[in-house]
Amino acid sequence: MGIANQMGSMSVNSFSFCLNQTQTLVAGCRISKPGSVSLSIKGTTFPSLTLQRRVPRLRVTCAAKPETVNKVCDIVKKQLALPDESSVSGESKFAALGADSLDTVEIVMGLEEAFGISVEEESAQSITTVQEAADMIDKLLESKSA
Amino acid sequence: MKIHSVSTRYSWSFVCMTSLRDRAQLMTNTRCFGRNFVTASSSLPPVQLPAQREVHFWYVLPDEVKSTNLLNQYLEILSPCEKEEIFRIREEQLKKSALLARALVRTTLARYQTKCQIDPKSFKFKKNNYGKPEVDWQSADDWSLPPLHFNISHTSSLIACGVAVGSPIGIDVEEKQRRLKNDILAFAQRFFSPHEIETLTHIADPELRLQEFIKLWTLKEAYVKALGKGFSASPFKTFTVRLRDHMKGDIHALRHVIYKAPDITVEPSVDLKNPSSNWEFVLLELAGSHYAAVCIEQDSIDPGSKSGNGSMPINLTLRKTIPFVEDECISANDSAVVIGGLARLAVCD
User: Where is each 4'-phosphopantetheinyl transferase domain found (chain B) (predicted)?
Assistant: First the structure.
């Protein structure tokens, strides 16, 4: 959970989260002040995280970074020999792009090389969309740098 | 292989819903082909169910299906959901391939009539807990068909459907000449078992190594698909497929040397004390261009099945089809060869 704010800091005890050393907690989020999380509350406790008007730039996302998705798209296009202008996006399912199971596994191998990660075999053969691949990659990268 | 879709507008020329007038037109057009069929099911010659240890292998070559009218007919027998999925595929060839795959399954299953004609459109499919497609027999009203098991596989140039009774079945087809983007050994190191990597490493010639790789791949795929539990349950590294060559026939005892196709076995990569001996494989070479692997479960009460030499071969009936148009029985000849496993190409009824 990444929260950016310019007010003073206060600890909140109704939910807990971990900050790791890097700037990102969740792919796609940025914290303006590394190592600290600030939350503006005025004597209110939050049972769950909600958007507060006083907290600008609150971004919560679990999806992969757009750069990751784009890189995956490029690798997929290369593996399946698709023209550059062909439409491949996060939603794209490998099978609908003409990939069979061998292509899918080759794509995973290409992703491992490109991102410097290692995918579990169980996952390698069960990824079916660009988004799934990108999410998995970002998760692996995150745990690698943790 | 699952058929997935991408949300987008389709550009294919035919429509899903035809008006009554269009249907009449469609019927007239099909009569002009010289075939007189009134209903879809009447143009599918009925076929006897496969017996135990018998596999029916049907395949269609997309290049042989060119008629838009025929493709329309195939579309007609699909469920609304299947049609939706197909319309969402952008690329023409992929769309056609997906359509042919669904049509092949439906028309093939419809041939196995016992009491009355079955409309291919009436099949309902569901997925098992792991995503493997199966026939939903519960919605079959009062059909009395024994549980047929089927499995599909397709490449861009060949779409196949395997059918068995009393055993789960997995099939996989690949083009023999299919190139990998990665180096074969690097790929095998990553995904295959130690024994398989060793086998491939010992083949010096790159073409032969590729062919052996494709054979192993199709066999491994067919096995996992027969298991029906998805790839997560049986990652490729965890089991080994072996092709064990036999000695060729005694040249003195026989007039001709009989080549016996290699035995194919599967066993866990690590725990070799407990080989999975109840799965059987057949490996075919089709039309000189494709490898096709079939995997079925051995009949545990078959007296011949446990002993090595006394095993009965699997009867494989091979048919090339253009549904609603023609079926061709393929017997053992240049266009179909059993290259692995204990099987014989049976004559069609």
Answer: 168-252
